[in-house]
Design brief:
The protein contains 4 helices and no strands. By secondary structure, the protein is mainly α.
C-alpha cells in the first residue's frame, strides 16, 4: 500500500498529464497553413511541450513526504494556472486567425499578458518544486 503522500504526488502528476494532453489535443484543431498564425501556433506548441516535459520529469524525481504534503497541492495549483494561461494564449491566437488581426494592439497586449502570466506561474511552480526536492 502506498502512502497518502505518494498518492497525492501521483495525483498531481496525473492531473498534469491530463491538462497537458488537453492542450496538445486542442492544438490538433488548428488548420494547417503557412502564415503568421501557424507560426504563433507552432511557437505556443513548442513552448507548451517543453513546459510539460520539463515539469513531468522534475515531478517524477521529487519525493512525496508528510513534510511536503501541502506543497504538492500548491504545485498542482500553479501548474494548472500556468497550463490554463498557455491555453488562453492559444485561444487568443486561434481567434485572431479568424479576425485577421483586426483587433490589433489590444489583442497583442492580452496575448503577451497571458504569456507573461504563464511564465510567472511556471516560475512559482518551479520554486515550489525545488522546495519539495529540498525537503
Amino acid at each position: 500500500m502506498q502512502s497518502r503522500f505518494e498518492i497525492r504526488k501521483r495525483f498531481t502528476i496525473l492531473a498534469w498529464i491530463f491538462i497537458s494532453t488537453v492542450f496538445f489535443w486542442s492544438m490538433s484543431f488548428l488548420p494547417h497553413q503557412f502564415d503568421l498564425g501557424s507560426f504563433l501556433s507552432y511557437m505556443i506548441l513548442l513552448f507548451g511541450g517543453g513546459f510539460v516535459f520539463h515539469f513531468f520529469t522534475e515531478m517524477l524525481s521529487a519525493p512525496a513526504t508528510e513534510e511536503n504534503w501541502s506543497q504538492w497541492g500548491e504545485l498542482a495549483m500553479y501548474l494548472v494556472k500556468a497550463a490554463l494561461s498557455i491555453i488562453a494564449v492559444f485561444a487568443i491566437a486561434y481567434i485572431e486567425k479568424f479576425l485577421f488581426f483586426m483587433a490589433g494592439i489590444p489583442t497583442i497586449v492580452v496575448l503577451f499578458t497571458s504569456m507573461w502570466y504563464s511564465i510567472s506561474q511556471a516560475e512559482k511552480a518551479h520554486s515550489v518544486l525545488y522546495q519539495i526536492k529540498g525537503s
